[in-house]
Automatic annotation (TrEMBL):
<feature type="domain" description="Peptidase M28">
    <location>
        <begin position="228"/>
        <end position="416"/>
    </location>
</feature>
<dbReference type="InterPro" id="IPR007484">
    <property type="entry name" value="Peptidase_M28"/>
</dbReference>
<dbReference type="GO" id="GO:0004180">
    <property type="term" value="F:carboxypeptidase activity"/>
</dbReference>
<protein>
    <submittedName>
        <fullName>M28 family peptidase</fullName>
    </submittedName>
</protein>
<dbReference type="Pfam" id="PF04389">
    <property type="entry name" value="Peptidase_M28"/>
</dbReference>
<dbReference type="InterPro" id="IPR039373">
    <property type="entry name" value="Peptidase_M28B"/>
</dbReference>
Protein backbone atom coordinates (compact mmCIF):
# COMPACT_ATOMS: atom_id res chain seq x y z
CA UNK A 1 0.00 0.00 0.00
CA UNK A 2 1.53 3.32 -1.03
CA UNK A 3 1.44 6.57 0.94
CA UNK A 4 -1.59 7.97 -0.89
CA UNK A 5 -3.57 4.78 -0.37
CA UNK A 6 -2.61 4.64 3.32
CA UNK A 7 -3.63 8.24 3.86
CA UNK A 8 -6.97 7.86 2.10
CA UNK A 9 -7.85 4.62 3.93
CA UNK A 10 -6.75 6.29 7.16
CA UNK A 11 -9.34 9.00 6.57
CA UNK A 12 -12.19 6.48 6.84
CA UNK A 13 -14.32 7.02 9.92
CA UNK A 14 -17.46 5.31 11.20
CA UNK A 15 -19.09 8.57 12.30
CA UNK A 16 -20.96 9.32 9.07
CA UNK A 17 -21.77 5.76 7.96
CA UNK A 18 -22.90 4.52 11.35
CA UNK A 19 -25.19 7.52 11.79
CA UNK A 20 -26.89 6.56 8.51
CA UNK A 21 -27.19 2.91 9.53
CA UNK A 22 -28.82 3.95 12.83
CA UNK A 23 -31.22 6.27 11.04
CA UNK A 24 -32.18 3.71 8.41
CA UNK A 25 -32.83 1.16 11.14
CA UNK A 26 -35.79 3.29 12.26
CA UNK A 27 -37.92 3.29 9.09
CA UNK A 28 -38.91 0.92 6.32
CA UNK A 29 -37.72 1.53 2.77
CA UNK A 30 -40.11 -0.56 0.67
CA UNK A 31 -42.70 1.87 -0.70
CA UNK A 32 -41.26 4.41 -3.18
CA UNK A 33 -42.28 7.28 -0.87
CA UNK A 34 -40.14 5.83 1.92
CA UNK A 35 -37.31 5.03 -0.50
CA UNK A 36 -37.38 8.64 -1.70
CA UNK A 37 -37.14 9.76 1.91
CA UNK A 38 -34.00 7.66 2.25
CA UNK A 39 -32.56 9.11 -0.95
CA UNK A 40 -33.20 12.64 0.33
CA UNK A 41 -31.43 11.74 3.57
CA UNK A 42 -28.38 10.44 1.70
CA UNK A 43 -28.28 13.65 -0.34
CA UNK A 44 -28.58 15.84 2.76
CA UNK A 45 -25.82 13.97 4.58
CA UNK A 46 -23.49 14.21 1.58
CA UNK A 47 -24.13 17.92 1.17
CA UNK A 48 -23.38 18.41 4.86
CA UNK A 49 -19.85 17.27 4.01
CA UNK A 50 -19.71 19.50 0.96
CA UNK A 51 -20.17 16.68 -1.54
CA UNK A 52 -22.27 17.78 -4.55
CA UNK A 53 -25.12 15.46 -5.52
CA UNK A 54 -27.15 15.12 -8.70
CA UNK A 55 -30.65 13.76 -8.05
CA UNK A 56 -32.13 11.86 -10.98
CA UNK A 57 -35.88 11.14 -10.96
CA UNK A 58 -36.69 8.09 -13.10
CA UNK A 59 -40.20 6.73 -13.53
CA UNK A 60 -39.98 3.04 -12.63
CA UNK A 61 -42.52 0.25 -12.98
CA UNK A 62 -42.68 -1.44 -9.58
CA UNK A 63 -44.64 -4.16 -7.78
CA UNK A 64 -45.36 -3.66 -4.09
CA UNK A 65 -46.39 -6.72 -2.03
CA UNK A 66 -49.04 -6.36 0.64
CA UNK A 67 -50.77 -8.88 2.89
CA UNK A 68 -51.08 -12.57 2.06
CA UNK A 69 -52.35 -15.81 3.57
CA UNK A 70 -53.23 -19.37 2.66
CA UNK A 71 -56.47 -21.00 3.83
CA UNK A 72 -57.01 -24.76 3.85
CA UNK A 73 -58.94 -27.27 5.94
CA UNK A 74 -60.31 -24.53 8.19
CA UNK A 75 -56.81 -23.24 8.99
CA UNK A 76 -55.04 -20.00 8.07
CA UNK A 77 -51.32 -20.04 7.27
CA UNK A 78 -49.07 -17.00 7.39
CA UNK A 79 -47.65 -16.03 4.00
CA UNK A 80 -45.83 -13.31 2.08
CA UNK A 81 -46.27 -12.60 -1.62
CA UNK A 82 -43.19 -11.87 -3.75
CA UNK A 83 -43.04 -8.69 -5.78
CA UNK A 84 -44.55 -9.06 -9.26
CA UNK A 85 -46.91 -11.88 -8.29
CA UNK A 86 -50.45 -11.50 -9.61
CA UNK A 87 -52.94 -9.87 -7.27
CA UNK A 88 -55.26 -12.36 -5.60
CA UNK A 89 -56.88 -10.27 -2.88
CA UNK A 90 -60.22 -11.98 -3.56
CA UNK A 91 -58.64 -15.41 -3.25
CA UNK A 92 -57.57 -18.07 -5.72
CA UNK A 93 -58.84 -21.58 -4.97
CA UNK A 94 -57.71 -24.88 -6.37
CA UNK A 95 -56.47 -28.36 -5.65
CA UNK A 96 -53.10 -28.44 -3.92
CA UNK A 97 -50.36 -30.64 -5.38
CA UNK A 98 -46.97 -31.14 -3.74
CA UNK A 99 -43.84 -31.32 -5.91
CA UNK A 100 -40.76 -32.06 -3.75
CA UNK A 101 -37.62 -30.05 -4.36
CA UNK A 102 -34.31 -29.50 -2.60
CA UNK A 103 -33.63 -26.24 -0.85
CA UNK A 104 -30.69 -24.42 -2.49
CA UNK A 105 -27.35 -25.23 -0.88
CA UNK A 106 -25.45 -22.31 -2.39
CA UNK A 107 -26.17 -18.75 -3.50
CA UNK A 108 -25.38 -19.78 -7.07
CA UNK A 109 -28.39 -22.13 -7.14
CA UNK A 110 -30.93 -19.89 -5.39
CA UNK A 111 -32.44 -18.55 -8.60
CA UNK A 112 -32.53 -21.74 -10.65
CA UNK A 113 -35.58 -23.77 -11.60
CA UNK A 114 -37.04 -25.76 -8.76
CA UNK A 115 -37.21 -29.18 -10.41
CA UNK A 116 -34.71 -30.38 -13.00
CA UNK A 117 -36.75 -33.10 -14.72
CA UNK A 118 -40.11 -31.59 -15.55
CA UNK A 119 -41.12 -34.00 -18.32
CA UNK A 120 -43.85 -35.78 -16.36
CA UNK A 121 -45.03 -32.84 -14.27
CA UNK A 122 -47.41 -31.04 -16.61
CA UNK A 123 -50.21 -33.55 -16.16
CA UNK A 124 -49.82 -33.41 -12.37
CA UNK A 125 -49.70 -29.64 -11.90
CA UNK A 126 -51.85 -28.25 -14.72
CA UNK A 127 -54.81 -26.33 -13.34
CA UNK A 128 -53.60 -26.77 -9.74
CA UNK A 129 -51.81 -24.82 -7.04
CA UNK A 130 -48.28 -26.16 -6.64
CA UNK A 131 -46.52 -26.49 -3.29
CA UNK A 132 -42.73 -26.86 -3.40
CA UNK A 133 -39.61 -26.11 -1.38
CA UNK A 134 -37.57 -23.01 -2.10
CA UNK A 135 -37.89 -19.25 -2.23
CA UNK A 136 -40.61 -17.66 -4.35
CA UNK A 137 -38.03 -16.82 -7.00
CA UNK A 138 -38.22 -16.43 -10.80
CA UNK A 139 -37.02 -19.94 -11.57
CA UNK A 140 -39.60 -21.67 -9.39
CA UNK A 141 -42.59 -19.55 -10.39
CA UNK A 142 -41.72 -19.45 -14.10
CA UNK A 143 -41.24 -23.20 -14.26
CA UNK A 144 -44.61 -24.07 -12.76
CA UNK A 145 -46.33 -21.36 -14.80
CA UNK A 146 -45.00 -22.99 -17.97
CA UNK A 147 -46.35 -26.34 -16.77
CA UNK A 148 -49.87 -24.93 -16.38
CA UNK A 149 -50.10 -24.32 -12.61
CA UNK A 150 -52.57 -21.65 -11.52
CA UNK A 151 -50.67 -20.70 -8.35
CA UNK A 152 -47.48 -21.43 -6.42
CA UNK A 153 -46.75 -21.78 -2.70
CA UNK A 154 -43.03 -21.80 -1.85
CA UNK A 155 -41.91 -23.43 1.39
CA UNK A 156 -39.12 -21.39 2.99
CA UNK A 157 -36.54 -23.33 5.01
CA UNK A 158 -37.07 -21.99 8.53
CA UNK A 159 -39.37 -20.26 10.99
CA UNK A 160 -39.35 -16.97 9.12
CA UNK A 161 -40.79 -16.13 5.72
CA UNK A 162 -38.59 -14.25 3.28
CA UNK A 163 -39.73 -11.50 0.93
CA UNK A 164 -38.58 -11.74 -2.66
CA UNK A 165 -39.49 -11.14 -6.28
CA UNK A 166 -40.73 -13.68 -8.81
CA UNK A 167 -40.43 -12.02 -12.21
CA UNK A 168 -37.87 -13.12 -14.78
CA UNK A 169 -37.98 -9.64 -16.35
CA UNK A 170 -34.81 -7.67 -15.59
CA UNK A 171 -35.76 -4.09 -14.69
CA UNK A 172 -38.78 -2.25 -16.05
CA UNK A 173 -40.31 -4.37 -18.83
CA UNK A 174 -40.26 -3.20 -22.43
CA UNK A 175 -42.72 -4.42 -25.06
CA UNK A 176 -40.68 -7.55 -25.73
CA UNK A 177 -40.48 -8.34 -21.99
CA UNK A 178 -44.17 -7.93 -21.18
CA UNK A 179 -45.16 -11.51 -22.14
CA UNK A 180 -42.79 -12.77 -19.43
CA UNK A 181 -44.47 -10.89 -16.60
CA UNK A 182 -45.75 -13.42 -14.04
CA UNK A 183 -49.30 -14.56 -14.78
CA UNK A 184 -50.20 -16.40 -11.56
CA UNK A 185 -50.31 -15.64 -7.84
CA UNK A 186 -47.43 -16.88 -5.68
CA UNK A 187 -46.76 -16.77 -1.95
CA UNK A 188 -44.16 -18.06 0.48
CA UNK A 189 -44.85 -19.86 3.77
CA UNK A 190 -42.49 -21.04 6.50
CA UNK A 191 -41.30 -24.59 7.06
CA UNK A 192 -43.89 -25.42 9.72
CA UNK A 193 -46.78 -24.19 7.58
CA UNK A 194 -45.30 -25.92 4.56
CA UNK A 195 -45.12 -29.27 6.34
CA UNK A 196 -48.79 -29.03 7.29
CA UNK A 197 -49.71 -28.09 3.74
CA UNK A 198 -47.75 -31.08 2.41
CA UNK A 199 -49.98 -33.41 4.42
CA UNK A 200 -53.08 -31.65 3.12
CA UNK A 201 -51.79 -31.96 -0.44
CA UNK A 202 -51.33 -35.70 0.02
CA UNK A 203 -54.99 -35.88 1.03
CA UNK A 204 -56.06 -33.99 -2.12
CA UNK A 205 -57.14 -30.88 -0.23
CA UNK A 206 -58.36 -27.63 -1.75
CA UNK A 207 -56.56 -24.41 -0.77
CA UNK A 208 -57.21 -20.72 -1.27
CA UNK A 209 -54.33 -18.29 -1.76
CA UNK A 210 -54.77 -14.59 -0.95
CA UNK A 211 -52.25 -11.94 -2.02
CA UNK A 212 -52.67 -8.17 -2.09
CA UNK A 213 -50.47 -6.37 -4.62
CA UNK A 214 -49.98 -2.81 -5.86
CA UNK A 215 -48.38 -2.37 -9.27
CA UNK A 216 -47.64 0.61 -11.49
CA UNK A 217 -45.35 3.51 -12.36
CA UNK A 218 -43.67 5.37 -9.51
CA UNK A 219 -41.55 8.51 -9.46
CA UNK A 220 -38.28 7.47 -7.86
CA UNK A 221 -35.20 9.36 -6.73
CA UNK A 222 -31.68 8.25 -7.61
CA UNK A 223 -28.75 10.24 -6.18
CA UNK A 224 -25.43 10.32 -8.02
CA UNK A 225 -22.06 11.68 -6.93
CA UNK A 226 -19.50 12.22 -9.70
CA UNK A 227 -16.01 12.71 -8.27
CA UNK A 228 -13.72 13.95 -11.02
CA UNK A 229 -10.22 12.60 -11.36
CA UNK A 230 -7.31 14.89 -12.12
CA UNK A 231 -5.83 13.20 -15.23
CA UNK A 232 -8.60 11.31 -17.05
CA UNK A 233 -11.80 12.84 -15.66
CA UNK A 234 -13.99 11.39 -18.43
CA UNK A 235 -13.05 7.81 -17.45
CA UNK A 236 -14.62 6.46 -14.27
CA UNK A 237 -15.34 3.53 -11.98
CA UNK A 238 -19.06 3.03 -11.23
CA UNK A 239 -19.53 2.28 -7.50
CA UNK A 240 -23.11 1.45 -6.59
CA UNK A 241 -25.63 -0.28 -4.33
CA UNK A 242 -29.37 -0.38 -3.68
CA UNK A 243 -31.16 1.76 -1.10
CA UNK A 244 -34.64 0.24 -1.15
CA UNK A 245 -34.93 -2.71 1.23
CA UNK A 246 -37.41 -5.09 2.76
CA UNK A 247 -38.59 -3.59 6.04
CA UNK A 248 -35.69 -1.60 7.60
CA UNK A 249 -33.12 -3.83 5.90
CA UNK A 250 -30.04 -3.00 7.97
CA UNK A 251 -27.74 -5.72 6.62
CA UNK A 252 -29.38 -5.56 3.19
CA UNK A 253 -28.64 -2.83 2.44
CA UNK A 254 -28.35 0.03 4.97
CA UNK A 255 -24.74 -0.99 5.63
CA UNK A 256 -24.04 -0.82 1.91
CA UNK A 257 -25.67 2.60 1.59
CA UNK A 258 -23.58 3.82 4.50
CA UNK A 259 -20.42 2.42 2.93
CA UNK A 260 -21.14 4.30 -0.29
CA UNK A 261 -21.75 7.48 1.73
CA UNK A 262 -18.39 7.24 3.50
CA UNK A 263 -16.47 6.35 0.35
CA UNK A 264 -18.05 9.28 -1.50
CA UNK A 265 -17.07 11.59 1.37
CA UNK A 266 -13.46 10.39 1.56
CA UNK A 267 -12.90 10.24 -2.19
CA UNK A 268 -14.37 13.70 -2.71
CA UNK A 269 -12.06 15.15 -0.05
CA UNK A 270 -9.15 13.48 -1.84
CA UNK A 271 -10.27 14.05 -5.41
CA UNK A 272 -6.98 15.75 -6.29
CA UNK A 273 -5.29 12.38 -5.69
CA UNK A 274 -7.51 10.51 -8.18
CA UNK A 275 -6.24 9.81 -11.70
CA UNK A 276 -9.68 8.77 -13.00
CA UNK A 277 -13.14 9.64 -11.74
CA UNK A 278 -15.48 7.70 -9.47
CA UNK A 279 -19.24 7.73 -10.04
CA UNK A 280 -21.31 6.70 -6.99
CA UNK A 281 -25.02 5.78 -7.23
CA UNK A 282 -27.74 4.59 -4.86
CA UNK A 283 -30.42 2.53 -6.64
CA UNK A 284 -34.21 2.45 -6.13
CA UNK A 285 -36.36 -0.42 -7.38
CA UNK A 286 -33.92 -3.22 -6.52
CA UNK A 287 -36.36 -5.25 -4.44
CA UNK A 288 -39.67 -4.28 -6.02
CA UNK A 289 -38.57 -3.86 -9.63
CA UNK A 290 -35.92 -6.56 -10.19
CA UNK A 291 -33.08 -3.98 -10.28
CA UNK A 292 -35.21 -1.32 -11.96
CA UNK A 293 -33.02 1.57 -10.77
CA UNK A 294 -29.69 0.23 -11.97
CA UNK A 295 -31.34 -0.94 -15.20
CA UNK A 296 -32.75 2.55 -15.79
CA UNK A 297 -29.26 3.96 -15.32
CA UNK A 298 -27.77 1.32 -17.61
CA UNK A 299 -30.34 2.18 -20.29
CA UNK A 300 -30.23 5.96 -20.04
CA UNK A 301 -26.45 6.31 -19.73
CA UNK A 302 -25.60 3.32 -21.93
CA UNK A 303 -23.51 5.14 -24.52
CA UNK A 304 -21.55 7.03 -21.89
CA UNK A 305 -20.96 3.82 -19.92
CA UNK A 306 -19.86 2.12 -23.14
CA UNK A 307 -17.37 4.86 -23.93
CA UNK A 308 -16.03 5.77 -20.50
CA UNK A 309 -16.78 3.31 -17.69
CA UNK A 310 -13.75 1.30 -16.53
CA UNK A 311 -15.49 -1.07 -14.11
CA UNK A 312 -18.67 -1.69 -12.12
CA UNK A 313 -18.38 -2.31 -8.36
CA UNK A 314 -21.48 -3.47 -6.46
CA UNK A 315 -21.77 -2.74 -2.73
CA UNK A 316 -24.37 -4.99 -1.11
CA UNK A 317 -24.55 -6.34 2.47
CA UNK A 318 -21.11 -5.36 3.81
CA UNK A 319 -20.44 -4.99 7.53
CA UNK A 320 -22.68 -7.73 8.90
CA UNK A 321 -22.13 -9.62 12.16
CA UNK A 322 -20.02 -12.80 12.11
CA UNK A 323 -19.01 -12.12 8.47
CA UNK A 324 -15.36 -13.05 8.90
CA UNK A 325 -14.62 -14.56 5.47
CA UNK A 326 -14.48 -13.47 1.84
CA UNK A 327 -16.01 -16.51 0.16
CA UNK A 328 -18.61 -16.84 -2.62
CA UNK A 329 -17.39 -13.48 -3.92
CA UNK A 330 -18.65 -12.42 -7.32
CA UNK A 331 -15.79 -11.43 -9.59
CA UNK A 332 -15.28 -11.73 -13.30
CA UNK A 333 -12.19 -13.74 -14.20
CA UNK A 334 -10.13 -10.78 -15.34
CA UNK A 335 -10.58 -9.07 -11.94
CA UNK A 336 -9.70 -12.04 -9.70
CA UNK A 337 -6.01 -11.39 -9.09
CA UNK A 338 -6.48 -7.68 -8.55
CA UNK A 339 -9.34 -8.03 -6.08
CA UNK A 340 -7.76 -10.95 -4.22
CA UNK A 341 -4.66 -8.86 -3.59
CA UNK A 342 -6.76 -6.00 -2.19
CA UNK A 343 -8.64 -8.31 0.19
CA UNK A 344 -5.43 -9.97 1.37
CA UNK A 345 -3.86 -6.57 2.02
CA UNK A 346 -6.78 -5.00 3.89
CA UNK A 347 -8.42 -7.97 5.61
CA UNK A 348 -5.64 -10.54 5.69
CA UNK A 349 -8.04 -13.04 4.15
CA UNK A 350 -7.92 -15.32 1.14
CA UNK A 351 -10.63 -14.46 -1.36
CA UNK A 352 -12.66 -17.27 -2.90
CA UNK A 353 -14.32 -15.98 -6.04
CA UNK A 354 -17.03 -17.35 -8.27
CA UNK A 355 -18.75 -16.44 -11.48
CA UNK A 356 -21.13 -13.49 -10.92
CA UNK A 357 -24.73 -14.64 -10.55
CA UNK A 358 -27.60 -13.39 -12.64
CA UNK A 359 -28.70 -11.35 -9.65
CA UNK A 360 -27.82 -8.28 -7.62
CA UNK A 361 -27.48 -5.09 -9.64
CA UNK A 362 -25.35 -6.67 -12.36
CA UNK A 363 -27.27 -4.59 -14.89
CA UNK A 364 -24.24 -3.76 -17.04
CA UNK A 365 -23.20 -7.12 -18.53
CA UNK A 366 -24.96 -6.24 -21.77
CA UNK A 367 -22.74 -3.18 -22.16
CA UNK A 368 -19.63 -5.13 -21.21
CA UNK A 369 -18.27 -3.74 -17.94
CA UNK A 370 -15.65 -5.59 -15.94
CA UNK A 371 -17.42 -6.13 -12.63
CA UNK A 372 -16.59 -7.36 -9.18
CA UNK A 373 -18.27 -7.84 -5.83
CA UNK A 374 -21.97 -7.97 -5.10
CA UNK A 375 -22.03 -9.33 -1.61
CA UNK A 376 -18.81 -8.82 0.32
CA UNK A 377 -17.81 -10.62 3.50
CA UNK A 378 -19.84 -13.53 4.84
CA UNK A 379 -19.86 -16.19 7.56
CA UNK A 380 -17.60 -19.19 7.43
CA UNK A 381 -19.37 -22.41 6.41
CA UNK A 382 -18.71 -23.93 9.83
CA UNK A 383 -20.26 -20.93 11.60
CA UNK A 384 -23.40 -21.25 9.50
CA UNK A 385 -23.63 -24.96 10.20
CA UNK A 386 -23.17 -24.44 13.93
CA UNK A 387 -26.02 -21.92 13.96
CA UNK A 388 -28.23 -24.14 11.81
CA UNK A 389 -28.41 -21.46 9.12
CA UNK A 390 -29.53 -22.22 5.59
CA UNK A 391 -28.36 -20.43 2.45
CA UNK A 392 -29.58 -16.88 1.92
CA UNK A 393 -28.62 -14.19 -0.56
CA UNK A 394 -27.17 -11.45 1.63
CA UNK A 395 -26.75 -10.07 5.17
CA UNK A 396 -23.37 -11.77 5.46
CA UNK A 397 -25.13 -15.13 5.71
CA UNK A 398 -27.50 -14.08 8.51
CA UNK A 399 -30.92 -15.64 7.93
CA UNK A 400 -32.52 -12.33 8.87
CA UNK A 401 -32.07 -11.58 5.14
CA UNK A 402 -35.28 -10.28 3.53
CA UNK A 403 -37.20 -10.51 6.80
CA UNK A 404 -38.40 -8.09 9.48
CA UNK A 405 -35.49 -9.36 11.64
CA UNK A 406 -32.86 -7.56 9.58
CA UNK A 407 -32.48 -4.92 12.28
CA UNK A 408 -29.61 -2.95 13.84
CA UNK A 409 -28.13 -5.97 15.59
CA UNK A 410 -27.22 -7.47 12.19
CA UNK A 411 -24.63 -4.73 11.60
CA UNK A 412 -21.14 -4.95 13.11
CA UNK A 413 -19.05 -1.79 13.43
CA UNK A 414 -15.64 -3.42 13.19
CA UNK A 415 -16.59 -5.52 10.17
CA UNK A 416 -18.23 -2.51 8.52
CA UNK A 417 -15.04 -0.47 8.91
CA UNK A 418 -12.96 -3.27 7.42
CA UNK A 419 -15.34 -3.82 4.51
CA UNK A 420 -15.48 -0.12 3.66
CA UNK A 421 -11.69 -0.15 3.40
CA UNK A 422 -11.76 -3.23 1.14
CA UNK A 423 -14.15 -1.53 -1.26
CA UNK A 424 -12.33 1.78 -1.04
CA UNK A 425 -8.89 0.37 -1.80
CA UNK A 426 -10.26 -1.63 -4.74
CA UNK A 427 -11.91 1.44 -6.24
CA UNK A 428 -8.91 3.66 -5.51
CA UNK A 429 -6.45 1.27 -7.14
CA UNK A 430 -8.74 0.84 -10.10
CA UNK A 431 -8.95 4.60 -10.51
CA UNK A 432 -5.24 5.25 -10.09
CA UNK A 433 -3.68 2.27 -11.88
CA UNK A 434 -1.22 3.20 -14.61
CA UNK A 435 -2.32 0.03 -16.41
CA UNK A 436 -5.90 -1.08 -15.76
CA UNK A 437 -5.59 -4.08 -13.41
CA UNK A 438 -7.57 -6.61 -15.44
CA UNK A 439 -5.94 -9.74 -16.82
CA UNK A 440 -7.79 -11.01 -19.88
CA UNK A 441 -5.54 -14.05 -20.03
CA UNK A 442 -7.61 -15.38 -17.12
CA UNK A 443 -10.78 -14.93 -19.14
CA UNK A 444 -9.28 -16.67 -22.16
CA UNK A 445 -8.29 -19.52 -19.86
CA UNK A 446 -11.86 -19.66 -18.57
CA UNK A 447 -13.14 -19.86 -22.16
CA UNK A 448 -10.77 -22.75 -22.95
CA UNK A 449 -11.92 -24.64 -19.85
CA UNK A 450 -15.59 -23.98 -20.64
CA UNK A 451 -15.28 -25.18 -24.24
CA UNK A 452 -13.39 -28.29 -23.11
CA UNK A 453 -16.16 -29.07 -20.63
CA UNK A 454 -18.87 -28.57 -23.25
CA UNK A 455 -16.97 -30.76 -25.73
CA UNK A 456 -16.65 -33.55 -23.17
CA UNK A 457 -20.41 -33.48 -22.56
CA UNK A 458 -21.26 -33.27 -26.26
CA UNK A 459 -18.94 -36.13 -27.22
CA UNK A 460 -18.97 -36.87 -30.93
CA UNK A 461 -22.39 -35.30 -31.43
CA UNK A 462 -20.93 -31.85 -32.09
CA UNK A 463 -17.43 -30.58 -32.82
CA UNK A 464 -16.35 -27.50 -30.87
CA UNK A 465 -12.77 -27.63 -32.18
CA UNK A 466 -13.16 -24.38 -34.17
CA UNK A 467 -14.24 -22.53 -31.02
CA UNK A 468 -11.39 -24.09 -29.07
CA UNK A 469 -8.87 -23.02 -31.72
CA UNK A 470 -10.22 -19.47 -31.61
CA UNK A 471 -9.99 -19.36 -27.80
CA UNK A 472 -6.43 -20.71 -27.83
CA UNK A 473 -5.47 -18.16 -30.49
CA UNK A 474 -6.91 -15.40 -28.32
CA UNK A 475 -4.92 -16.66 -25.33
CA UNK A 476 -1.72 -16.56 -27.40
CA UNK A 477 -2.45 -13.03 -28.58
CA UNK A 478 -3.09 -11.94 -25.01
CA UNK A 479 0.18 -13.48 -23.81
CA UNK A 480 2.02 -11.40 -26.41
CA UNK A 481 -0.01 -8.30 -25.49
CA UNK A 482 0.77 -8.51 -21.77
CA UNK A 483 4.41 -9.31 -22.54
CA UNK A 484 4.47 -6.09 -24.55
CA UNK A 485 3.11 -4.20 -21.55
CA UNK A 486 5.86 -5.69 -19.40
CA UNK A 487 8.71 -4.79 -21.76
CA UNK A 488 7.33 -1.35 -22.56
CA UNK A 489 6.62 -1.94 -26.25
CA UNK A 490 2.91 -1.41 -25.54
CA UNK A 491 2.35 2.01 -23.95
CA UNK A 492 0.01 2.42 -20.95
CA UNK A 493 -2.37 4.58 -22.98
CA UNK A 494 -2.67 1.95 -25.70
CA UNK A 495 -2.90 -0.88 -23.19
CA UNK A 496 -5.76 0.77 -21.33
CA UNK A 497 -7.80 1.33 -24.50
CA UNK A 498 -7.41 -2.32 -25.43
CA UNK A 499 -8.18 -3.60 -21.92
CA UNK A 500 -11.34 -1.49 -21.74
CA UNK A 501 -12.54 -2.44 -25.23
CA UNK A 502 -11.88 -6.13 -24.66
CA UNK A 503 -14.51 -5.94 -21.92
CA UNK A 504 -17.10 -4.71 -24.43
CA UNK A 505 -16.48 -7.80 -26.59
CA UNK A 506 -15.81 -10.60 -24.13
CA UNK A 507 -18.22 -9.89 -21.26
CA UNK A 508 -21.40 -9.91 -23.39
CA UNK A 509 -20.09 -13.09 -25.03
CA UNK A 510 -19.67 -14.75 -21.63
CA UNK A 511 -22.67 -13.38 -19.75
CA UNK A 512 -25.49 -12.59 -22.19
CA UNK A 513 -27.73 -14.18 -24.79
CA UNK A 514 -29.44 -10.96 -25.83
CA UNK A 515 -27.89 -8.37 -28.12
CA UNK A 516 -26.05 -5.45 -26.55
CA UNK A 517 -28.12 -2.82 -24.76
CA UNK A 518 -30.85 -5.31 -23.95
CA UNK A 519 -31.23 -7.26 -20.71
CA UNK A 520 -31.33 -11.04 -20.36
CA UNK A 521 -33.97 -12.60 -18.09
CA UNK A 522 -33.23 -12.85 -14.37
CA UNK A 523 -32.38 -16.54 -14.52
CA UNK A 524 -28.93 -18.15 -14.47
CA UNK A 525 -26.79 -17.68 -17.57
CA UNK A 526 -24.19 -20.41 -18.19
CA UNK A 527 -20.65 -19.57 -19.34
CA UNK A 528 -20.41 -18.84 -23.07
CA UNK A 529 -24.19 -19.26 -23.35
CA UNK A 530 -24.10 -19.46 -27.14
CA UNK A 531 -22.43 -22.87 -26.73
CA UNK A 532 -24.23 -24.10 -23.61
CA UNK A 533 -26.60 -26.41 -25.52
CA UNK A 534 -23.59 -28.71 -25.92
CA UNK A 535 -23.87 -29.54 -22.22
CA UNK A 536 -27.57 -30.43 -22.52
CA UNK A 537 -27.58 -32.97 -25.36
CA UNK A 538 -28.21 -35.93 -23.04
CA UNK A 539 -31.16 -34.14 -21.47
CA UNK A 540 -32.60 -33.04 -24.82
CA UNK A 541 -32.53 -36.55 -26.28
CA UNK A 542 -32.26 -37.79 -29.89
CA UNK A 543 -35.49 -36.14 -31.06
CA UNK A 544 -34.04 -32.66 -30.52
CA UNK A 545 -30.44 -33.40 -31.54
CA UNK A 546 -30.75 -31.85 -35.00
CA UNK A 547 -32.25 -28.66 -33.57
CA UNK A 548 -29.53 -28.48 -30.94
CA UNK A 549 -26.83 -28.87 -33.59
CA UNK A 550 -28.38 -26.02 -35.56
CA UNK A 551 -28.29 -23.84 -32.47
CA UNK A 552 -24.69 -24.79 -31.80
CA UNK A 553 -23.59 -23.95 -35.35
CA UNK A 554 -25.04 -20.47 -34.90
CA UNK A 555 -23.65 -20.17 -31.39
CA UNK A 556 -20.18 -21.24 -32.46
CA UNK A 557 -20.28 -18.61 -35.20
CA UNK A 558 -21.02 -15.95 -32.60
CA UNK A 559 -18.18 -17.10 -30.36
CA UNK A 560 -15.57 -17.34 -33.11
CA UNK A 561 -16.52 -13.97 -34.59
CA UNK A 562 -16.22 -12.28 -31.18
CA UNK A 563 -12.87 -13.91 -30.43
CA UNK A 564 -11.56 -12.84 -33.84
CA UNK A 565 -12.74 -9.30 -33.12
CA UNK A 566 -10.85 -9.38 -29.81
CA UNK A 567 -7.68 -10.61 -31.54
CA UNK A 568 -7.98 -7.87 -34.16
CA UNK A 569 -8.27 -5.27 -31.41
CA UNK A 570 -5.14 -6.63 -29.72
CA UNK A 571 -3.23 -6.71 -33.02
Amino acid sequence: MNDIESAILGAVSLDAPWALVESFSTYKREHPDDVNRGMDEVKARLEKYGVPVTMHQPELFLSLPGKARVEADGKTFRAKPPAYCVDARDGLSGELVYVPSNQPKAISTMFERSVEDASDLAARVSGKIVLSEGFANPGLVAQFTELGAIGVIAINPGVDIHWGICTTVWGTPDLDDLPRKPRIPAVAVNREGGDQLIELAKAGAQVTVFAEMEEGWFSSKLPEVFIEGAEEPEKYILLHGHLDSWDVGVGDNATGDASLLEMARVLYENRDKLKRSVRVCWWPGHSTGRYAGSTWFSDNFALDLDENCIASVNCDSPGCRWATEFINLCMMSETEDFLSEVIEEVAGKKAEGERPHRAGDYSFNNIGLSSYLMLSSTMAERAREEKGYYTVGGCGGNIAWHTENDTLEIADKDILLRDIKVYLLAVLRNANAEILPFDWRKTAGEFIATIADYQKKAGDRFDLAPAMQAAEALKASLEAFYAGIEDGSVTPATANVVIRKLARILIPLNFTREQRFRHDPAVPIPPLPALSAAADLDKLGPAKLGFARTQLVRGQNRVIAALKEARALIK
